[in-house]
Amino acid sequence: MQRTLCLFVLFIVIGGVMFLPCTSGYTLLSQTIPPRLALDERLCTFDRLTKTIISFSSPEEPHISVTPLPRSPYSIKALGNGRYELHFESRIGAGTYSIKVSSGTETKECVWKVLRSQLHEQNWSSISTLQCYFGCRCSLRSRLPVEAELPREQFKINVTIGDGPSMVDAAYAESWFGPRIPASAKTVRIDVVWVYPPTGERVPLLSKTMIPIQEPPELDCINAQASFANDSTLRDLEKKGKISRSKERLAMLDSSRLQEIFFTVKGIRMHKEVPIDADSRDPIAQKVLFAQAENVEIMRLPSIQHQSPSSNLSISADYSGGETRPFAITTTSTRCVDAGFLPNEKELYAVVAVIVPTFPIPETRILKGVLEFQQQIQVVNRKAGVSAPSYVTPCFVKIAIPYDRNTSKVEWVNCWSSIGAARPPEEKTPNLPAEEICAHCSEEKSTIATNAKKASVYHAWKVLSPALHDEIQAIFVQAGKMSVMKPLPSSVPLVVIAKKNAQFPYSLVALRFGEHVLTPREIQMYVPSSIQTLLRSPIIARLSEAEDSVVGTKKGYLYGVLSEGEQSTMLAAAREAIFKETCANLRQNLRSIRNYELGGFALFEADSVSVARFRETFTPSLPRTQGLEEAEKMCLTTKRIIAQIEAGQRVPQAWIDEGGSPQDCEVVKLYHTTSYSLVRIDKVMLLVNVRANKPEILAAVSVSMPKNICDSLESTILHDCLLAPLSTGCLLGEDLRQFTTTEFEKDAKTGEMIAVKGAITQSQHSTMYEHLFDKLKQGRLRERTLDVMPLPAMNIYRPSNRLQGKR
Amino acid sequence: MMKFLATFILMLLLHNELYCQIPAKSSPILAPVAFKTPDPNVAFTCWRVCESALRDSLCTIAKEKKGSEVVVFALQREDKNNPALFELVWLSIGKKVFAKPHISLNFRPTLQQRVAIPFAYFSQQDKLARKDIYSYEPMSGLERLEAIRRMQGSSFPEELTLKQALMRISDFAYANIHIISSHSVGRRIAEKLSPALQRTDELFNAETLCPNTYGIIQRIAQKRPIPAEMLEEKECETVRNFYAHTYDTNRIESAVLVYEQKNIFSAQIPPSRTRQPSSKSASFLGSVGIRVSSSPEHSDRNFLRNMLQNPPETGTMTFAELAEIPTKEYQTNAEGKKEFTNASIQWTETKNLLEFVQEQDLAGDSGYLGMSNNHILELRRQEAEAHVFLKSRIARELWGK
């Protein structure tokens, strides 16, 4: 223990002795130790330094020699206590000097390097082209001279932006970024200085004054893509007169077996946001302001480089093994009809018109390849009063535009032209006065135009796939159309007749195998929906690789093209078969208009009296009782309740409670709610065979229509209703012959016979068939064939009376 | 020897199971050809088993000559990740036809599974690839029809009577039969065989006086117990008793009519093989009873299918049995007048239900007999939509893979 204590005390004592000279410091030593000759061995300054001070210490009067002797004289200044300063009062030329200080026998030497006042030579070229841009940070990449063995803290960077605030003494860095340049700045000055510590003199090493400029925009075409020009775009261009889709032009092209298709190239946009200004209100968190759509202008519209070797197009079939034809890109065949910025976007677009060869329906081709476009835009910095154009860069746009015969067709095109023989026969109206004929014509034209708007075009093609051949033949056998169990040779054609909708795929209308035809109803009955889906997709581009890997997901099949004449023949045969099948299985076919719409039947709307007869017989209303009459009188809110129910809204309980007699109001509500929810016949359509000279009413189809529909939608809704008519009100001709026009019941009170169930007491005919037929003959029934059927009736029966035309 | 004896006993048991479960009564009528053949309208996925080992083992079980043709009729189960999941529906082995009941009786589940999966899909770097599990040959639509035509001349391993087949109607959902719901016939059968209690004035009064009438009816319909508190009043007991009988699931509510579908090969088949006594009765086979259900038919798309899973014996009758049920039934009322009862079909002149059905059928007015859709047929059509072989064949034609 004692030993430990002794050691501790000794340690403290030794520690205190050693610590004393360190803490009491230099003064203690200087006071006690005489100065020795001391001089820095190396010194470094710049030649623009106006006054150089070199400190040294010497115990005696020093003797100094400087070699080579600079032009500037020097002086020695004694500071006392053996300390001295050597003063050079003017600039010292660049070079290496040797300073020798002798004191007695002792001599010390210092190598003094005076460097040129500039940065490293390697920076000169980059500094000479140094530029700064509005909205961007000014930056400097530089290096100090290799010989400058000086602390980096002695170097500073100063920035002065125009007449505004400047940044002083920013720490030097080889990669230095300064403040953002506002659009108001006229000049930007950057200074790199060396601060000489003894005097604080600032020696400039670099001084660069720049006029800020606007950064040019860059165009990016990576996402550029071509797609079909939509109809509204084309209409606008047509209004502007940039394109013409006149009937004459189309006819002219068609005569040369050509057609014009339009596609839009989009996705050429500015590569990145272009800064134009800086909000430097907060110098620490400066905000950059980018160019907006109004700051971007087109200098050169996108134009097709017809001569460019990169531009090449070809027309190919979109199925494997199809032929590919090169397409000549000329100023006539391929032209840019419009270009510009998309509204409120910094994106360019171009509308391109290409005149391509036509192909027979339903073939589809793909126009594919690459087109080179060139365009130029500029950014206008209005605040700074400058603009910067982009470089003229080529854009390579991949084109893959599928098209068919009808791609370029527009609304006014008469749909009959595309179905050849299905064109309605020329109608003769010899007995009509001139004005009625004209009225009739215009009406007919407008109806045809309305139908054409539905864009319902019928196409036919041959199925060449042996697998489908076998499968469809089996279906024909199942349907009882054939009995041949051996595969028929490929010379027996299997033809699909389909209706082209606004877009792919088609909807099946009929299948023809040899001379046998499956009608729409039979297709629905016998052809599984997956085979239907297969059949209506003869042409679908290959799927992605991932989808391809799963066997069976590829779509499409081998098919053959039929000429327009053959297609028309096929459609005519299908219509004939549909007509026959509909007549044979009329009741089943009445379940949907799809089953008979191509059969060439006419459709007439029954008169209101007949409709009432149908309605009251098959869908009668709830009988009104004495109790109800009284309840309606007692309930004060009867009218409001009825109006509410008719509007299809819930009756508030308050109306029942506050209606004077809640029980009566409840009765009223119940009756009218039930009555309103009853499905009742609203229209009765007559399916008429007009092939012969004398028309024949085949059936009456009753439908329930939604209430409060506008006139413009009436035809569409009627068609939808005929897709699923009321089965109770669908009567065949023979049913109509047994359906009497009148019906009487004995009144329980008076004992008299009264007409019931909408009986037509005024009719001269005993049966509904006779009544309706008479009305039809007189032309008093409104014809709705063209409103709901895609094609007009075949050999339409024209009643002599023109009343039917009045609508 | 022991092994043979054990197999024999097992076969005997299985055979007995088939016949003991289904009361055969004394009906001698055998199941017609329609039950032996798949419906040609159903697009089965169909293939031949070409692997000799598998084919031979199937032939051995079927007691057919080794090397006989084995045709599988299967339906694809809905599994997008594995399109090779099939359900065996029919097997044609040589001159034997195996429908679902026969398949489950004669083949081990592992063998059934092996036959039903001819190929499998496996994932290789996220790409599905197909691998054949055994050698097989897909059949085209025409070949399928040809196979069905040949099956018409084949026989079941164990013959079924028509009554047994009707009782197992759900197993024959894909057979060449047609199911029609007939309101008149169904109601007549139901009322004749399990008549509902008549609504009386007493019941009406009880319904009015019982405060829980609606709740009791709801609970009975939903097969929930009725708490004693709800039956405190005497009238409620009356209501409970009436509706408990009405909703008794042992009662039948209706019946569907089973028809043989039009035979598309009839012209090619000798009449002797059809086993049908006459052309008139050939199309109509019998009726299948439908139990009382609390859920209305329109609320469940699979209503009919579910109801036919386990049909009651009551109401399931062959055409011969239906010939014994008169169309009309009279009862003398309190005033001494005769009145029709038990849903008699008053307006027909036919004497029994068989005649009535045949008359309607001959009149061609199927709309009258079956206003509702043929649910089973619709379902069958929807289930057979895969066409996996057809699609791959077309793909090969197109892309050469």
Description of the molecule:
The complex is a heterodimer of chains A (807) and B (401). Chain A has 21 helices and 39 strands. Chain A has 807 residues and is α+β, with helices and mostly antiparallel strands. Chain A folds into 6 domains: 38-115, Immunoglobulin-like (Sandwich); 121-210, Immunoglobulin-like (Sandwich), CATH 2.60.40; 219-404, no CATH class; 415-451, no CATH class; 461-577, no CATH class; 602-621 and 678-805, no CATH class. In chain A, the strands form 10 sheets. In chain A, strands 20, 21, 22, 25, 26 and 27 form a 6-stranded antiparallel β-sheet that branches. In chain A, strands 15, 16, 17, 23 and 24 form a 5-stranded antiparallel β-sheet that branches. In chain A, strands 31-30-29-28-32 form a 5-stranded antiparallel β-sheet, sandwiched between helices. In chain A, a hairpin with a 7-residue loop joins strand 18 (275-279) and strand 19 (287-290). Chain A starts with a helix and ends in a 19-residue tail after the last helix. Mean pLDDT of chain A is 78; it is low at 13-31, 409-456, 540-554 and 799-807. By secondary structure, chain B is an alpha+beta fold. The longest helix of chain B has 20 residues, at 2-21. Chain B has a 5-stranded antiparallel β-sheet, with helices on both faces. In chain B, strands 8-9-10-11 form a 4-stranded antiparallel β-sheet, with helices on both faces. Chain B has helices spanning 2-21, 52-62, 100-106, 109-116, 141-151, 162-167, 183-193, 201-209, 213-221, 234-246, 279-283, 303-307, 319-322, 353-362, 366-369, 375-383, 388-399; strands at 45-49, 70-76, 86-93, 96-98, 119-124, 127-132, 136-138, 177-181, 252-260, 284-291, 317-318, 330-332, 338-340. The model of chain B is unreliable at 16-25, 267-282 and 362-375 (pLDDT under 50). In chain B, helix 8 (201-209) packs across helix 10 and helix 9 (213-221) packs parallel to helix 10 (234-246). Chain B has 3 domains: 31-160, no CATH class; 178-193 and 251-370, no CATH class; 201-246, no CATH class. Chain B starts with a helix and ends with a helix. The chains are: A alpha+beta (807), B alpha+beta (401). The interface between A and B is large, with 39 and 41 residues.
